[in-house]
Design goal:
Galactose-bd-like_sf; 23% strand; Glycoside_Hdrlase_35; globular; three-stranded antiparallel sheet; 288 residues; Beta-galactosidase; hydrolase activity, hydrolyzing O-glycosyl compounds
Length: 288
Protein backbone atom coordinates (compact mmCIF):
# COMPACT_ATOMS: atom_id res chain seq x y z
CA UNK A 1 0.00 0.00 0.00
CA UNK A 2 2.76 2.47 0.90
CA UNK A 3 4.35 2.10 -2.54
CA UNK A 4 1.14 3.42 -4.14
CA UNK A 5 -0.20 5.81 -1.51
CA UNK A 6 2.86 6.83 0.48
CA UNK A 7 1.94 9.44 3.08
CA UNK A 8 -1.19 10.61 1.25
CA UNK A 9 -3.70 8.57 3.26
CA UNK A 10 -4.52 8.21 6.94
CA UNK A 11 -6.33 5.27 8.55
CA UNK A 12 -7.76 6.03 11.97
CA UNK A 13 -8.06 3.44 14.72
CA UNK A 14 -11.49 2.97 16.29
CA UNK A 15 -10.30 0.58 18.99
CA UNK A 16 -8.80 2.20 22.10
CA UNK A 17 -6.37 -0.65 22.64
CA UNK A 18 -3.55 1.51 23.94
CA UNK A 19 -3.32 4.18 26.61
CA UNK A 20 -0.86 6.06 24.41
CA UNK A 21 -3.68 7.57 22.34
CA UNK A 22 -4.79 11.04 23.31
CA UNK A 23 -7.95 12.96 22.49
CA UNK A 24 -6.71 15.50 19.97
CA UNK A 25 -6.73 15.97 16.18
CA UNK A 26 -3.62 14.66 14.38
CA UNK A 27 -1.32 17.50 13.25
CA UNK A 28 -2.01 18.66 9.71
CA UNK A 29 -5.36 16.86 9.34
CA UNK A 30 -8.01 19.02 7.64
CA UNK A 31 -11.00 19.92 9.84
CA UNK A 32 -14.65 19.28 8.98
CA UNK A 33 -15.84 22.43 10.71
CA UNK A 34 -14.56 25.99 10.33
CA UNK A 35 -13.20 26.97 6.90
CA UNK A 36 -9.98 24.99 6.97
CA UNK A 37 -7.37 25.68 4.34
CA UNK A 38 -6.77 24.17 0.95
CA UNK A 39 -5.34 24.42 -2.50
CA UNK A 40 -7.85 26.02 -4.81
CA UNK A 41 -5.76 26.54 -7.90
CA UNK A 42 -7.08 23.89 -10.29
CA UNK A 43 -9.10 25.00 -13.30
CA UNK A 44 -11.99 24.94 -13.87
CA UNK A 45 -12.55 25.82 -10.23
CA UNK A 46 -15.13 23.73 -8.36
CA UNK A 47 -15.63 24.47 -4.68
CA UNK A 48 -15.96 21.90 -1.91
CA UNK A 49 -18.59 21.63 0.82
CA UNK A 50 -18.05 21.68 4.58
CA UNK A 51 -18.90 18.04 5.26
CA UNK A 52 -16.79 15.02 4.34
CA UNK A 53 -19.52 12.52 5.24
CA UNK A 54 -20.44 11.91 1.62
CA UNK A 55 -17.55 9.47 1.10
CA UNK A 56 -15.72 9.01 4.40
CA UNK A 57 -15.01 5.79 6.37
CA UNK A 58 -15.73 7.63 9.62
CA UNK A 59 -18.32 10.40 9.80
CA UNK A 60 -17.86 13.80 11.41
CA UNK A 61 -19.64 12.44 14.49
CA UNK A 62 -17.25 9.49 14.71
CA UNK A 63 -19.75 6.96 13.37
CA UNK A 64 -18.71 4.16 11.05
CA UNK A 65 -19.90 4.13 7.45
CA UNK A 66 -20.09 1.31 4.91
CA UNK A 67 -16.69 2.34 3.57
CA UNK A 68 -15.14 1.72 6.99
CA UNK A 69 -16.38 -1.87 7.05
CA UNK A 70 -15.20 -2.40 3.46
CA UNK A 71 -11.70 -1.20 4.43
CA UNK A 72 -11.70 -3.36 7.55
CA UNK A 73 -12.78 -6.43 5.59
CA UNK A 74 -10.07 -5.85 2.97
CA UNK A 75 -7.36 -5.42 5.62
CA UNK A 76 -8.39 -8.68 7.26
CA UNK A 77 -7.98 -10.51 3.97
CA UNK A 78 -4.34 -9.45 3.83
CA UNK A 79 -3.61 -9.74 7.55
CA UNK A 80 -1.34 -12.76 7.20
CA UNK A 81 0.53 -11.49 4.13
CA UNK A 82 1.34 -8.12 5.68
CA UNK A 83 1.51 -9.29 9.31
CA UNK A 84 -1.44 -7.19 10.40
CA UNK A 85 -2.76 -7.88 13.88
CA UNK A 86 -6.38 -7.44 14.96
CA UNK A 87 -5.83 -8.94 18.40
CA UNK A 88 -5.99 -5.53 20.08
CA UNK A 89 -9.53 -4.80 18.83
CA UNK A 90 -11.76 -4.41 21.88
CA UNK A 91 -15.07 -4.32 20.00
CA UNK A 92 -16.21 -6.31 17.01
CA UNK A 93 -18.41 -3.36 15.99
CA UNK A 94 -17.72 0.01 17.69
CA UNK A 95 -20.88 1.81 18.79
CA UNK A 96 -22.15 4.95 17.12
CA UNK A 97 -22.15 8.14 19.16
CA UNK A 98 -25.57 9.46 20.29
CA UNK A 99 -27.02 12.58 18.65
CA UNK A 100 -29.59 15.01 20.00
CA UNK A 101 -32.53 16.65 18.25
CA UNK A 102 -33.04 19.88 20.20
CA UNK A 103 -35.79 21.18 17.94
CA UNK A 104 -36.24 24.63 16.41
CA UNK A 105 -34.51 27.84 17.45
CA UNK A 106 -36.01 31.25 16.66
CA UNK A 107 -33.63 33.84 15.17
CA UNK A 108 -33.82 37.60 14.78
CA UNK A 109 -32.15 39.92 12.28
CA UNK A 110 -29.60 41.93 14.27
CA UNK A 111 -27.11 43.94 12.24
CA UNK A 112 -25.51 44.46 8.82
CA UNK A 113 -21.83 43.70 8.28
CA UNK A 114 -21.38 47.40 7.53
CA UNK A 115 -22.57 48.38 11.02
CA UNK A 116 -20.78 45.76 13.11
CA UNK A 117 -17.06 46.57 13.41
CA UNK A 118 -16.70 44.03 16.21
CA UNK A 119 -17.05 41.13 13.76
CA UNK A 120 -13.74 41.95 12.07
CA UNK A 121 -10.54 40.34 13.28
CA UNK A 122 -8.26 43.28 12.49
CA UNK A 123 -8.32 47.06 12.25
CA UNK A 124 -8.90 48.50 8.74
CA UNK A 125 -5.85 49.04 6.56
CA UNK A 126 -5.45 51.85 4.02
CA UNK A 127 -3.60 50.87 0.83
CA UNK A 128 -3.42 52.34 -2.67
CA UNK A 129 -3.67 48.85 -4.20
CA UNK A 130 -5.91 46.07 -2.82
CA UNK A 131 -3.85 43.53 -0.91
CA UNK A 132 -4.24 39.77 -1.38
CA UNK A 133 -5.37 37.38 1.36
CA UNK A 134 -1.81 36.06 1.59
CA UNK A 135 -0.30 39.53 2.01
CA UNK A 136 -2.87 40.27 4.72
CA UNK A 137 -2.11 36.88 6.30
CA UNK A 138 -5.77 35.91 6.04
CA UNK A 139 -5.80 32.27 4.99
CA UNK A 140 -9.52 31.53 5.07
CA UNK A 141 -12.88 33.24 5.32
CA UNK A 142 -13.60 36.77 4.10
CA UNK A 143 -11.98 40.14 3.42
CA UNK A 144 -14.00 43.34 2.89
CA UNK A 145 -12.44 45.84 0.46
CA UNK A 146 -13.82 49.39 0.27
CA UNK A 147 -13.21 52.54 -1.78
CA UNK A 148 -15.20 55.44 -3.22
CA UNK A 149 -16.18 55.61 -6.86
CA UNK A 150 -14.73 58.51 -8.89
CA UNK A 151 -16.80 61.68 -9.10
CA UNK A 152 -16.65 61.31 -12.89
CA UNK A 153 -17.13 58.03 -14.73
CA UNK A 154 -17.59 57.59 -18.48
CA UNK A 155 -20.72 56.18 -20.06
CA UNK A 156 -20.70 52.40 -20.44
CA UNK A 157 -18.05 52.01 -17.73
CA UNK A 158 -17.44 48.50 -16.37
CA UNK A 159 -16.15 47.29 -13.03
CA UNK A 160 -14.21 44.06 -13.52
CA UNK A 161 -12.27 41.63 -11.33
CA UNK A 162 -10.67 39.27 -13.83
CA UNK A 163 -9.32 36.76 -11.31
CA UNK A 164 -11.61 36.73 -8.31
CA UNK A 165 -10.59 34.12 -5.73
CA UNK A 166 -13.15 32.75 -5.18
CA UNK A 167 -16.40 34.69 -4.78
CA UNK A 168 -17.11 38.40 -4.36
CA UNK A 169 -20.30 40.27 -3.49
CA UNK A 170 -20.25 43.82 -4.86
CA UNK A 171 -22.08 46.60 -2.99
CA UNK A 172 -22.62 50.26 -3.91
CA UNK A 173 -23.59 52.39 -0.92
CA UNK A 174 -24.12 49.12 0.96
CA UNK A 175 -26.70 47.84 -1.54
CA UNK A 176 -25.85 44.54 -3.30
CA UNK A 177 -25.32 44.97 -7.05
CA UNK A 178 -23.55 41.83 -8.30
CA UNK A 179 -21.83 38.58 -7.40
CA UNK A 180 -18.54 37.73 -9.09
CA UNK A 181 -17.70 34.05 -8.98
CA UNK A 182 -14.70 32.00 -10.00
CA UNK A 183 -16.88 28.96 -10.66
CA UNK A 184 -19.55 30.75 -12.72
CA UNK A 185 -17.15 33.01 -14.63
CA UNK A 186 -19.11 36.18 -13.79
CA UNK A 187 -16.58 38.95 -13.17
CA UNK A 188 -17.91 42.31 -14.40
CA UNK A 189 -20.57 44.90 -13.60
CA UNK A 190 -21.86 47.73 -15.78
CA UNK A 191 -21.75 51.07 -13.97
CA UNK A 192 -24.23 53.92 -14.30
CA UNK A 193 -23.80 57.67 -14.07
CA UNK A 194 -25.79 57.62 -10.81
CA UNK A 195 -23.04 55.41 -9.30
CA UNK A 196 -20.60 58.36 -9.25
CA UNK A 197 -19.13 59.00 -5.81
CA UNK A 198 -20.81 56.01 -4.19
CA UNK A 199 -19.03 53.82 -1.67
CA UNK A 200 -17.82 50.62 -3.32
CA UNK A 201 -17.64 47.58 -1.05
CA UNK A 202 -16.47 44.15 -2.21
CA UNK A 203 -16.79 41.22 0.18
CA UNK A 204 -14.42 38.50 -1.06
CA UNK A 205 -14.72 34.90 0.12
CA UNK A 206 -11.98 32.29 -0.03
CA UNK A 207 -13.93 29.08 -0.70
CA UNK A 208 -10.95 26.85 -0.10
CA UNK A 209 -11.09 23.25 -1.21
CA UNK A 210 -11.43 22.01 -4.77
CA UNK A 211 -14.12 19.45 -5.55
CA UNK A 212 -15.63 17.73 -8.57
CA UNK A 213 -18.97 19.51 -9.02
CA UNK A 214 -19.46 23.20 -9.79
CA UNK A 215 -21.29 25.47 -7.37
CA UNK A 216 -24.01 27.77 -8.69
CA UNK A 217 -25.63 30.90 -7.32
CA UNK A 218 -28.12 30.22 -4.52
CA UNK A 219 -30.69 32.31 -2.68
CA UNK A 220 -29.45 31.58 0.86
CA UNK A 221 -25.78 31.26 1.74
CA UNK A 222 -23.73 31.94 4.83
CA UNK A 223 -21.82 30.72 7.86
CA UNK A 224 -22.98 29.34 11.21
CA UNK A 225 -21.27 30.11 14.53
CA UNK A 226 -22.11 28.36 17.82
CA UNK A 227 -20.71 29.90 21.00
CA UNK A 228 -18.14 31.76 18.94
CA UNK A 229 -16.96 28.67 17.03
CA UNK A 230 -17.28 28.44 13.26
CA UNK A 231 -19.36 25.39 12.33
CA UNK A 232 -18.99 25.88 8.58
CA UNK A 233 -20.81 27.18 5.52
CA UNK A 234 -24.39 26.52 4.46
CA UNK A 235 -25.74 26.80 0.90
CA UNK A 236 -28.91 24.63 0.81
CA UNK A 237 -30.17 25.64 -2.63
CA UNK A 238 -26.86 24.50 -4.13
CA UNK A 239 -26.30 21.47 -1.93
CA UNK A 240 -25.66 18.68 -1.60
CA UNK A 241 -25.19 19.49 2.09
CA UNK A 242 -28.12 21.05 3.96
CA UNK A 243 -27.05 20.33 7.57
CA UNK A 244 -23.94 21.10 9.61
CA UNK A 245 -22.44 18.87 12.29
CA UNK A 246 -22.07 20.48 15.74
CA UNK A 247 -19.80 18.61 18.17
CA UNK A 248 -21.44 18.20 21.56
CA UNK A 249 -18.35 19.52 23.33
CA UNK A 250 -19.04 22.97 21.82
CA UNK A 251 -22.47 23.20 23.49
CA UNK A 252 -23.09 24.40 27.03
CA UNK A 253 -25.14 22.19 29.32
CA UNK A 254 -28.08 23.60 31.27
CA UNK A 255 -28.21 26.17 32.83
CA UNK A 256 -25.61 27.56 30.42
CA UNK A 257 -26.73 29.75 27.50
CA UNK A 258 -25.75 28.79 23.96
CA UNK A 259 -25.34 31.55 21.36
CA UNK A 260 -26.17 30.87 17.71
CA UNK A 261 -24.98 33.49 15.18
CA UNK A 262 -25.70 33.32 11.44
CA UNK A 263 -23.84 35.36 8.81
CA UNK A 264 -26.28 35.41 5.88
CA UNK A 265 -24.74 36.68 2.64
CA UNK A 266 -27.67 36.71 0.22
CA UNK A 267 -30.88 37.84 1.94
CA UNK A 268 -32.80 37.65 5.20
CA UNK A 269 -35.09 34.59 4.89
CA UNK A 270 -38.82 34.86 5.53
CA UNK A 271 -38.67 32.19 8.22
CA UNK A 272 -36.02 33.10 10.81
CA UNK A 273 -35.59 29.65 12.28
CA UNK A 274 -33.01 26.87 12.43
CA UNK A 275 -33.62 23.30 13.54
CA UNK A 276 -31.30 21.03 15.50
CA UNK A 277 -31.83 17.45 14.32
CA UNK A 278 -30.26 14.10 15.10
CA UNK A 279 -29.63 13.08 11.48
CA UNK A 280 -27.32 14.49 8.83
CA UNK A 281 -28.88 15.49 5.51
CA UNK A 282 -26.97 15.24 2.22
CA UNK A 283 -28.60 15.04 -1.21
CA UNK A 284 -31.98 15.40 0.52
CA UNK A 285 -31.40 11.99 2.11
CA UNK A 286 -30.99 11.25 5.81
CA UNK A 287 -27.78 9.34 6.47
CA UNK A 288 -25.83 7.70 9.31
Amino acid sequence: MTSYVGRNAILYTTDPGSNTYKCAPPPGVLPTIDFGAGGANAEPYKADITSYDYDAPISEAGDLTSKYFAIRSTLKKFADSYKLSFSGATHSTPMDFPKKAYGSVKLSAVVSIFNAPEIYDDEPLSEKIPQSFETLEVYSGYVLYEAYMPKKIPDFATLSILKVRDRATVYLDEEPRAIFSRSSGLNSLSLLQKDRGKKLSILVENQGYVNYDPHMQGDLKGVVFVNGRNMGRYWPSVGPQVTLYIPGCYLKAHPGINKLVILEEEKVPEVLEMRFRDRHKLNSTLIY
